[in-house]
Amino acid sequence: MRTQVVIVGGGPSGLLLGQLLHKHGIETVILERKTRDYVLARIRAGILETGLVNMMREAGVAERMDRECFVHHGTCISYENEMFDINFQELIGQNVIVYGQTEVTHDLYDARAAVGAKTMFEVENVEIHDADRDAPCVTFHAEGSTQRLDCDFVAGCDGFHGISRKTIPETVRREYEKVFPFGWLGILSETPPVHEELIYANSTRGFALCSMRNENLSRYYVQCDLSDKVGNWSDDAFWDELKRRLPDAIAEKLVTGPSIEKSIAPLRSFVTEPMRWGRLFLCGDAAHIVPPTGAKGLNTAASDVHYLYEALVQHYRDNDSEGIERYSERALARVWKAERFSWSTTNLLHRFPDQTPFDLKMQRAEIESLHYNETAQRWFAQNYVGLPY
Ligand code: FAS
Ligand code: PHB
Question: Which residue ranges does the chain devote to CATH 3.30.9.10?
């Protein structure tokens, strides 16, 4: 078999790239390790930057998103019983939307099936060959046999635990990592959100986040120990802890209910350089991970897709390799800014086991600066809504 671009991984990165390339008549095959339902059952991101929204529209996949999403003009930050909002619309004339990654992925799968583009599920033993040559190919096991796909390019969109990154020789790769000494325990509940905007809470007991998916589906998180287990947390225990980390006026309004999903996510910052090796391009979590504090994971995957999509269209349409040559440099320039914002907000809002009284004073001073300083708020707003591509 042969195609123009093999996309390893059928998450949001791979699907969005495939849909955009299809719009320009560039043929792709997506190889996905899991089933469609398994991929769609993952509960992940909730905030979309304008850049991602615009690419969903450009891909022709935005009709349900535009109909069902919630525009958020700002966000709230609380510390003990204080709470303030950072109004993106007033400060910089921009906003973000709330529309779950699950819905983004669902819409992209439906759109891909509608155009008849090939996606192979439950694919095993994917291997990328000769990516540093002019004729790469991908072998894999599917439908009971070992198969081979010859192609022009390979997009490694297979996430942090995929094989694409490891295809790049260790002698070529430079990896940067920071593992945070805590995780996020998250629940989904069919309850009305406690507040119309998200609330990022810094409290003496640790971080908490009040988010949502729609007017009757709320997403909450509390910082937890890395050794913690979901089984340690009954719904009641979760709700009690969440209330203790929120301002009284908010805690009093909290509508609790049974969790329909409960999971713990570790927090890490990670970047691999370069994001290109010959005809292999890394995209999304395959190349970088951020702590979810800044809502940058999915959104930074989207900017990678933007640069890679542009580069491949430039190659096939204009026979111009400038975008391909500069993909890694361009993508990484924005990746590192998203890493910085995610690292900075995580340090600002979480409790660290080794924090000294002086560290806590610094953290408090920084939160108060953000509370009362418009310039600090504007910089936060520019990063949160997404720096330009
Ligand atoms: P993904 O990991 O989503 O997709 C990769 C796909 O490749 C998967 O479907 C996988 O099955 C497949 N794959 C892996 N190995 C393969 C192989 N060898 N062969 C074929 N297929 C293979 N981001 C936010 O912005 N906000 C959040 O709140 C947030 N919460 C998160 C919570 C968790 C638990 C995790 C893990 C991530 C979270 N993220 C969050 C980040 C997340 O949204 C990612 O940024 C986003 O999924 C990136 O999309 P992809 O790059 O497509 O990678
Ligand atoms: C979410 O709704 O899952 C969410 C929102 C904002 C974040 C992280 C997660 O920063």
Answer: 180-267+351-385
